[in-house]
Amino acid sequence: MTTTHSPAVHVRGLRYDYGSFEALRGVDIDVHSGELFVLLGTNGAGKTTTLDVLEGRCQPGGGSVRVLGMDPWRQRRDVTARVGIVLQESALPQELTPLEFLRLWNRLTDAASTHIPSDDNLACVGLAHRRDVRIGRLSGGERRRLDLATALATDPELLVLDEPTSGLDPETRTDTWDLLRDFLRRGTSILLTTHYLEEAATLADRLAILHRGRVAVSGPLDEVLAARRLPTLADVFHEVSTTTPEEVSR
Ligand SMILES: Nc1ncnc2c1ncn2[C@@H]1O[C@H](COP(=O)(O)OP(=O)(O)OP(=O)(O)O)[C@@H](O)[C@H]1O
């Protein structure tokens, strides 16, 4: 893995509209190199839209966005080669096995990237024993782990994960946390979204809560709690989600 001295993600004043609906209304986010940053949000707050912009799938309507120092809209191919992405909805081919799929994935993704051997990758995500089973027969949790394996295939500098533990049982979820911690130890930066506040409190070096297209609070958990004078992240989340947009502070 090559290292970078740029911040992993630098977003200022990001705006995005769906027609006349303002989904992002001036979002600021920094993910420091080597940290795990959690983006929380109320339903429809704009988390997925933010990730779509970071991945170069949507053109920002305003503001500036840098991912590993690059403009994801103009340099999408370069960003994709260095960023591992897990989308909220994946479309894995049901007829292939995990091993066949990862080998195909490695051939289809950027030839300039270094690929982790597929067997090693499957072992890394705890799927070695399921490598020859058709994907259509895998459980939801196993498929989510295969999603993660595709994101890890090019040994990325940055992982962008949209609800990577959604629908996993508690044990598989904590296994995934351990896996993410392994990647942090290797210097990978991670940005993930989740609806699980416990996950955010456990994993995040820093976090942000989006509400109606704006960052309502951000920072390390202890600073967020101190700033709001509240005992738990759940209390902060409740306060944010019951605040009207005009009252949201930046
Ligand atoms: N294609 C679209 N057309 C119109 N509105 C959209 C479209 N996609 C998303 N939106 C709206 O933009 C807002 C932000 O959506 P987004 O999916 O980014 O939120 P989110 O924080 O990921 O939500 P959730 O946590 O519920 O998945 C929502 O109000 C959503 O209804």
From TrEMBL:
Record flagged with keyword Cell wall biogenesis/degradation: no
GO molecular function (one): ATP binding
Keywords: Antibiotic resistance, ATP-binding, Nucleotide-binding, Transport
Chief site of localization: membrane
Keyword Transport set for record: yes
InterPro entries: AAA+_ATPase (IPR003593), ABC_transporter-like_ATP-bd (IPR003439), ABC_transporter-like_CS (IPR017871), ABC_transporter_ATP-binding (IPR050763), P-loop_NTPase (IPR027417)
Topology of the protein relative to the lipid bilayer: Peripheral membrane protein
Chain ranges of the ABC transporter domain: 9-237
Assigned protein family: Belongs to the ABC transporter superfamily.
Name of this protein: ABC transporter ATP-binding protein
